[in-house]
Amino acid sequence: MKRRFALVLAALACVTLASAVGATAGPPDHFTDSVTYAWDDTGASATPCGAFDDRYMGHFDVSGITKFDKSGNPVQDVVHITGWETNWRSDNPAISYTIKRQFTVQYDYATNTEKDTGIIYTVSAPGVGLLFHDVGNIGEDDSTFEFTYIHGPHDVATNGEVTFCNALLAIS
């Protein structure tokens, strides 16, 4: 989970830094971006699932605001993310599923923490039903990448990347 989440966070950091450069006190700075990622990107890798690997590619659209204090320093980012991710077996690409993602990240500059709210991941398959989902609220200390709280069912956050493998096994 950390590898995929790190890709999202790295992209968000680029957007956030670009919006904060040259910031002055006043109204929030609005920004948008679009990011596509895959298992074979630099720094990423497929997830080992025993006899096969989980390969993935995804896309997300980002829109948000950076809020500033009276001195023009960034105080908070509120980022809305929508997207998808398709996962497939390396030994049989026809076995695949597509995840839906729609959530909000609230980042606090003073505490270096974030709160993710919404549908981080959710996927179901015909004939099987719900494969897994991460929905609700997650708090994270961005300096340690440790969760500070988890509210709601968060299969990936609590079980890790094996969740993606198990979903591929369930539809095989």
Structural notes for this entry:
19% of the residues lie in helices and 52% in strands. It has 172 residues and is of the alpha+beta class. Strands 1, 2, 3, 4, 5, 6, 7 and 8 form an eight-stranded antiparallel β-sheet that branches.
What attributes does this structure have?
single chain; 172 residues; alpha+beta; eight-stranded antiparallel sheet; 52% strand; elongated
Concise description?
The chain is of the alpha+beta class and 172 residues long.
Question: Mind sketching the topology for me?
Answer:
Blueprint: H1 2-20, E1 29-38, E2 47-48, E3 53-68, E4 74-89, E5 96-108, E6 113-125, E7 129-141, E8 146-151, H2 155-159, H3 162-170
Antiparallel strand pairs: 1-3, 2-3, 3-4, 4-5, 5-6, 6-7, 7-8
Helical percentage:
10-25%
Structural class: alpha+beta
Mean pLDDT: 89
Over the alpha carbons, how many angstroms does the gyration radius reach? 17 Å
Characterize the biggest β-sheet.
Answer: 8 strands, antiparallel
